[in-house]
Amino acid sequence: MKKITLLLAVLCAAFALPPVQAQSAPAASAAAPADDALFRALGGQPGIDRITGDFVPRLVADPRTSEFFKKTNQAHLKEMLSQQFCVVAGGPCVYTGVPMKLAHQDMDISKGDFNALVEVLQAAMDAQHVPFATQNQLLARLAPMHRDIVNVH
Ligand code: HEM
Question: How much is the pTM?
């Protein structure tokens, strides 16, 4: 058992995972505090609102994405993105918008379109002085959504 515990500890260290207990640990309780470190690093809700307030007009203006957003209610999209980024970052919010798959299903979005949107988001975060590591953490949490959003292969 000791050898297995050591092996697990080494593997966890190698892959930067939290250590696994050899004996069954109690499951994280629903009352455990949420990890809101990324939400705080983004500047809380005011910081997120500044990012989405910069991001949406860029999406409308950028020639790579403008066609998609030409009929968009910008204020509504900003509000939905603010809620969603807050949730994704571990903040105390509820996303009240349409689920990602449904929201994007009739849009013919390619991987290139998705990457363009990510670059526009990076530009918005740069403009709002979001540190590089914080940007990457938010992007890493948004990236898996490509499975529900990219629908042209
Ligand atoms: C991680 C990537 C993305 C996220 C997190 C995201 C998030 C969202 C959210 C929260 C909404 C609002 C849904 C609602 O109204 O309830 C939305 C709508 C929309 N998204 Fe995305 N999206 C992503 C990628 C894309 C891409 C790549 C495109 C196209 C280039 C796109 C185009 C649109 C359009 C056109 C709308 C509808 C706006 C309207 O109401 O007119 N999205 N998206």
Answer: 0.83
